[in-house]
Amino acid sequence: MKAIHDPHGVLAHGLAAIRSQYQVPAGFPPQVLEAATRAAARPLIDHADRSSVPFVTLDPATSTDLDQAFWIEPSGADLILQYAIADVAWFVDDGDAIDVEAWRRGTTIYLPDGKAGLYPPVLAEGAASLLPGGPRPAVIFTVRLRPDGEATLDSAERALIRSRAKLAYDAVTAADLPPAFAEFAARMDAAEKMRGAVRVDPPEQEVEALGDGRYGLAFRPLLPSEQHNAALSLAANLAIAAALQQAGTGLFRVMAGPTAKAMARLRSTAAGLGLDWPQSDDLKAFERTLDPTNPHHAAFMLAVRRAGNGAGYAPWIPGVTPWHEAISATYAHATAPLRRLADRHVIRATLAVANGKPVPDEVEDAFRRLPAVMAKADATSGVIERAVIDLAEVVMLQGREGERFAACVTDLDGESARVQLVDLPVITRVKLPGAAPGARVELRLDSADTASRRLIFAPTG
C-alpha cells in the first residue's frame, strides 16, 4: 500500500494487527525459498547482449525490486523507447514451487512498514531485479512514439542489460536522464488529452508529527519525475495491448466508468468541498482542472479513486474490444512482473507475438484463469489499504475527541449518511436523518479507537 507513509512508526502496533487479521504472509515456505535460490543461479544463456545501451532505472530511493530500466533516442520525428523489463519468467517455471506460491499471492502487498512480496527476495530484490551493474536478464520492448503520441511496438527480445544508475524520484536531475525524457512524457500527455483520458493520480498521504504526541495526514503531490516515468509504462502497455489484440490473444486491464450513483456522490462531494464543478463539464474535464497541492482538490481526487467501479482483467474474446475507461484505450499490464502475477504471462505472450511464434498453451490457459486470481488479490490489497487508511485517520484524530469538524454529505442510505470532512482527507458514516446530498454539516468527534480502527462522529445540532 503506497498511499500512506509512516516515517515515525506511529502506526506500528495497528499495522501488526492488520497483518495478523488479514494473514499477510511474513515470509515464504522453505521449499519456495530453496527453489528461488536454485533459480537465482540459473545460467543466462538465451539473451542477446545489449549491455552497451545506457539503461537507467527511476524509482523511490529505497526500492530494490526494480522492474523497469529505460533509454530513449530520437529516430527522425519519432522517439524510440527501449524499455527493459525484469525477465521473471527466466527464473520461474510453470508449476514449480515459486510459480505455485505466486499464483496463491497474486500481487505484492504493500504496507507502510514493509511489503509481502510476490516472489522471494533472492529473486525480486536480487537476481531478477534490474539493479545497477549486471549483467541482468530482461525483456526489452522497443516502443516507437510518434509526434502525435501514438505508441506502437517495434520489437521484443530477451537481452542482458547493465543499468548505469539507480535514480531516485526525489533526487534525479534532467542531466541524469535521456535528453528526450520530458519530451516523451509531453507527447503522451498530449495524446491522453486528445482521446479524453484522465489518469487520477491523487497525492500520497504521509503521517506527520505535529508535536505534543499528535499526528496528522499530509498530502504529498507526485513529483514531475514520477509523472514522467509513469508515461513510459503507459506507452509500453498501450503498445503491447494493441499488438496482442491484433494477434487475437492477451490479457487486458479493463475498467468501466463510475455509476450514476457514484457520479451523484461525486457532485455532492465537490459541492461540499466548495469546488466549482460546472454542470456542463463531465468528470474528466473537471479532473483536468484539479491542483493536487490544494487540500480540497486532493481530497476530491481521493474521492474519485474510491468512486470508480474498480479495474479488472479480461482475456481476449473474439469480437470484443477490451476497454479501460480512465485511459480511454485498450490497455494491458506488462511492466511490473516482480509485483503482479499477470504481467509475467503477458510478457511471455508479447515475446511470442512480436517474434512470429505461437503463444504457449500454458500462457493461453493462464489468461483464462488469471482474471479470478487477480480479482481476489486486488480485493485483498484493497481491504488492507482501507484498513491502513482507517488506522491512519484514527491516529490522526486521537486526542481530538470533543472537537467539531465541518463536513459535507456525499450520499445517503436511509438515516445513515456518508460524509467527507471538509478540511481533512477523512470519509466516514454518521446518522443524519433528513440530510441531503451536498449539505454542509457540523460533526463532533466522540471516539477515535485504534483497536477497532473506527471513528465515531455525531451531529452537533
UniProtKB/TrEMBL annotation:
Q: Which GO terms describe its biological process?
A: mRNA catabolic process
* GO molecular function annotations of the record: RNA binding; RNA nuclease activity
* SUPFAM superfamilies with a match to the protein in the record: Nucleic acid-binding proteins
For this entry, the protein name equals: Exoribonuclease R
Recorded superkingdom: Bacteria
Location of the RNB domain: 47-356
